[in-house]
Amino acid sequence: MENPYFKEKVKTFEVKNRSTSKLLEDLKDTAYQGRKLGEAFQVYKQMLKDDKLTIIMGLSGSMSTAGMWKIIRWLIENNYIDVLVSTGANISEDVYEAMGSSYYKGSPLVDDEELFEYKIDRFYDVYASEDDYRRMEKLIEDFSDTLDQHRIYSSRAYLWEFGKFLGSKDIRSMVEAAYRKRIPVYSPAIADSAYGIALVRLKRRKGKLISIDATLDLEELTKIVATSEKTGVIYIGGGVPKDFVQICTYLTPVFGVDARSKPHEYAIQITTDSPQWGGLSGCTLEEAVSWGKIAANANKVTCYCDATIALPILAQAISELGIRRNPPLDFEKILKEI
Predict the structure, then answer these.
(1) C-alpha distances in angstroms, 53 versus 115, 137, 259?
(2) Angular region, 300: left φ>0, alpha ψ -120 to 50, beta rest
(3) Which CATH architecture group holds 20-100+132-336?
(4) 4, 13, 42, 194: which has the fewest C-beta neighbours closer than 10 Å?
(5) What are the CA-CA distances from residue 28 to residues 11, 33, 42, 62, 69 (Å)?
(6) 3-class SS of residue 298
(7) Is 164 known to be catalytic?
(8) What tens digit of pLDDT does each residue of 283-335 get?
């Protein structure tokens, strides 16, 4: 009887001179999360070479404070992602550094009461100046004060204007790069961040309410999914960004498109959450098939790894390939028609 299980051999990893991309090529033939990171590299390469694919990234976690935000900016500038859906924290805490402030190496083994006295804010093992953080919030407040309070904005429309504003001040953040590249950035839970703080302060200080409607975000992103020939997703962590990108697939009938025809056809998930607690952040890509969010035959992989390890390695490897890619859609035209 032929053994159906012995198909591919695990290849013992050897230390030698190699590029990061070759490292990941070799890791895909090992085991555990090393293999999964190598497989994620293979899937991402295929995504970037598929010229009919719209690539959507969901970004959560405290990545900007960890020194990761320029990776995302680089992905935007090279058309390696087409749409960004982010927590409000990630797209404000990069502005903090882009304004000239710094994050500092710290420790979780510290007297936090003493940090409070020094006006130091702690993100696990990273320190930030509370005064500089407030300066960033004030910048957002000052920008928001330039907007029309009689208009209801999607977060994309709001952040589009902010990107333009930041560019005028030479503050080169992720949102500013997205404005230059004409790609949409969404933050459906934007009030849960420095943006919310700034907008409440503006309302209390001047009586000016800037309204950002997450329902418009959902409608716009669904239009992008419905219009795209194919979609692929990259999830850094989970939370609201991941679920937001997922649910757009079965909302496409509002634009006359059969939801069963629109699951994501590629998917990469980098997470430290596990599925047995039932939360969306740990939900497997396989579970998403039951909802029609991910295609049953999707080219997909989940790597259980701290994103501050996996993302830099993956991006460095991609950079070595020199792939040139153009956006698959005219997003401004699509969204203007809503």
Answers:
(1) 47, 36, 17
(2) beta
(3) 3-Layer(aba) Sandwich (3.40)
(4) 4
(5) 9, 9, 9, 28, 26
(6) strand
(7) no
(8) 999 999 999 999 999 999 999 999 999 999 999 999 999 999 999 999 999 99
